[in-house]
Amino acid sequence: MVSDMRRLWILLLAITIVALLAPASAHAATTMVDIKNNMFTPQEITIKAGDTVTWTNQDPATHNVDFDDDDDYDDYDDMDIESPMLKQGETFSHTFNMPGTYSYDCDVHPFMKGKVIVQ
Known about the structure:
Blueprint: H1 2-24, E1 30-36, E2 39-41, E3 44-47, E4 52-57, E5 66-67, E6 91-95, E7 100-105, E8 113-118
Parallel strand pairs: 1-4, 3-8
Antiparallel strand pairs: 1-2, 4-6, 5-7, 7-8
């Protein structure tokens, strides 16, 4: 009887540990954004907090990804994230941990704009 009780407690402890760790290890996704034809594709994406976005430059021209905290409608302050200049085939990734709306553009081509909405 004692060994059965001990097994039960060990089983309950294992189930509790797995249940506690499950939210922490919830799957974080990676969303891909292509930079091609002088635009970000898709231009606007919606992700969950903890997800990563990877931009890939498909253009022969160099581009970058620069988050601009000057927009009044954005939900972040003092966000200083700027990729290096990306040559064709190069990538840049960023993980978004805080919910909000994050606008970005390309410094070389300011008409290239994108938005990441983090839920």
